[in-house]
Design goal:
Blueprint: E1 9-13, H1 16-23, E2 41-46, H2 54-67, E3 73-82, E4 93-97, H3 99-105, E5 110-114, H4 119-122, H5 148-151, E6 178-181, H6 189-199, E7 201-205, E8 218-225, H7 236-252, H8 256-260, H9 271-275, E9 282-287
Parallel strand pairs: 1-2, 1-3, 3-8, 4-6, 6-7
Antiparallel strand pairs: 2-9, 3-7, 4-5
Helix pairs in contact: 1-7
Protein name: Purine and uridine phosphorylase
Organism: Aspergillus violaceofuscus (strain CBS 115571)
GO molecular function: catalytic activity
């Protein structure tokens, strides 16, 4: 592994699917935990297998800073649940909310802020008919392995009617807005709609809130479901690749000299956060030209 002090960009994933997507955009993979995306030295970390949420994200972030003290900018690149049918947003960011109190009161209890190709390629993205938005009253009561069509049905009365996208409209698109982060998944569509309307929320997720006091980062989310009882694992891979592609494009637009001028992340945090280390982080540093 090369000198850990040369790494200036951190990239955190929550699940292995996102880690695989991130590695697909590397220019070179070197031996050792420590490896360039474009012209940047980037270190990639993924949460321990089966462990999710704010506490584990914070642990991985602290461990990353302990091992790579010269990180300047960081990205949290994971999948998340969208709040459907919302207009274009002008403001962005991440805020943390108390999940229990929010569900009970059905209004946000905010606790913090984080400022014609081959067929194989054509079928890489799941078919459009797999993207179903159900009415908020329709609840998926069974386990995640059961298909929503079998449990909830595809009757038009259960679905939200939406215009089918034209061919030139079906490319991935970037949306900028507020992300609501808590330590539990949002699964109640009715509460989702009320909360999304309250603060014009774009996305619900779990991990970013854990980084607010330990790690300054940009949250990038690939949307794979609608923050309801149906968690669409079929779309997770596509969403993870979309988020990773955006992150890669973003890094390509930032000169390394600009990154070097930023303050070290460790200098922006309390001393206790800067020096504490956590166990169980899977860290993969990656280098390209």
């Amino acid at each position: 592994m090369s000198d850990p002090r040369v790494y200036t960009v951190g990239w955190i994933c929550a699940i292995s699917t996102e880690h695989v997507a991130a590695r697909a955009f590397l220019d070179e993979i070197h031996e050792g935990p420590g490896i360039f995306i474009g012209r940047h030295h980037v270190v990639i970390a993924v949460l321990p297998n089966g462990e999710y949420g704010t506490a584990f994200a914070a642990s991985v972030a602290r461990d990353m800073l302990h091992s790579f003290p010269n990180l300047r900018i960081s990205l949290m690149v994971v999948v998340g649940g969208g709040a459907p049918s919302h207009s274009t947003r002008c403001n962005g960011g991440v805020f943390q909310y108390d999940f229990g109190k929010t569900i009970q009161d059905q209004r946000f209890q905010t606790t913090g802020f984080l400022s014609q190709p081959p067929m194989a390629l054509q079928t890489a993205r799941p078919a459009p008919d797999r993207d179903r938005l159900y009415q908020s009253r329709v609840v998926h009561d069974s386990d995640d392995d059961c298909d929503c069509a079998d449990i909830c049905g595809n009757h038009p009365s259960n679905l939200v009617a939406r215009r089918r996208r034209l061919e030139d409209e079906d490319n991935p698109a970037g949306h900028y807005g507020l992300i609501a982060a808590a330590n539990k998944l949002m699964k109640d569509a009715s509460v989702r709609d009320k909360l999304a309307a309250e603060k014009d929320v774009l996305c619900f997720e779990m991990e970013a809130a854990g980084l607010m006091n330990h790690f300054t980062c940009l949250a990038i989310r690939g949307i794979c479901d609608y923050s309801d009882t149906r968690k669409n694992k079929e779309l997770q891979g596509y969403a993870a690749m979309t988020a990773a592609a955006y992150a890669r494009d973003l890094l390509d637009r930032i000169p390394p000299s600009r990154v070097e001028r930023e303050k070290k992340t460790s200098e922006l945090l309390p001393m206790s956060d800067s020096i504490s280390a956590a166990s169980h982080a899977i860290v993969s540093a990656q280098e390209g030209t």
